[in-house]
Amino acid sequence: MTSAPSPSRNVADILVEALPYIRKFSGMTIVVKYGGHAMVDEQLREDFAQDITLLKFIGLNPVVVHGGGPQINQVLERMGIRPQFVRGMRMTDAVTMDVVEMVLGGKVNKSIVALINRHGGRAVGLSGKDGGLLQAEKLHIVKQDSADAPPEIIDPGLVGRVTRVDPEIILTLSQKGFIPVVAPVGTGPAGETFNINADLVASRIAMALSAGRLIYLTDVDGVLDGSGRLVSSIRAAEAEELIRGNVITGGMIPKIEYALEAVGSGVTKVPIINGRKRHALLLELFTDSGIGTEVTQ
Q1: Domain spans of the chain?
Q2: Class for domain 27-218+252-284, per CATH?
Q3: Which of 71, 145, 169, 186 could form a disulfide with 136 if both were Cys (CB 3.0 to 4.6 A apart)?
């Protein structure tokens, strides 16, 4: 009788390396901002659904907050509407808001839910309007082209910022074994619907849940220094210096700002990782080195 082949040493080493992290994270709430290339590449979408399902099975409580900008743009363009942005914010009139809510709360949200469920998870789709999850108010954008120029206040339409998070619906679903998947729209004081930046929503939900981790999936490796090398860990003072020196630029700036707000309110760490890497979530959480930049207090 021949014995069954044993797994390779590499696989065994990986499992042993993961064990203390699985023990450490058991019972922890982890909020994941899901966006970028990981949402459109078919293999990466499958990997993400498997990762989220595995996290739930081994005792973590994952909460997914997703974007959907490219999908919204596709629908608007088919309608003959050209998307417009100011400082990275989508100009959102009433027609655009209808499209945003339809795409985020409908097609995108339900496709993520279905994929997680197909891999054995029990996902439930929500928008910020469900259960009073996200209360919001109108956002105004201040634009200043130069230090000498007067600031210009721009009205982006139905774009909001979070004023209050009521996490009860998320807590209830998580306690019952479900995986909440949240579309980033919220309700204003007069009942109006607001389009809200998904990075901001993820940060505020993580703060309200006292999450152990808030993880941003992006299309880059993390924060790079002036020489283009990955910064493995960064604190507030260091991040502010890199922003002032134009080393951190563009869309990474609000991510860092929201991450710093989260760690300042009790979230232990905020990893910013490259969602283009297969099983990025597992590599970040369950390996000694991780794969991105950790924002810490």
Answers
A1: 27-218+252-284
A2: alpha beta
A3: 186
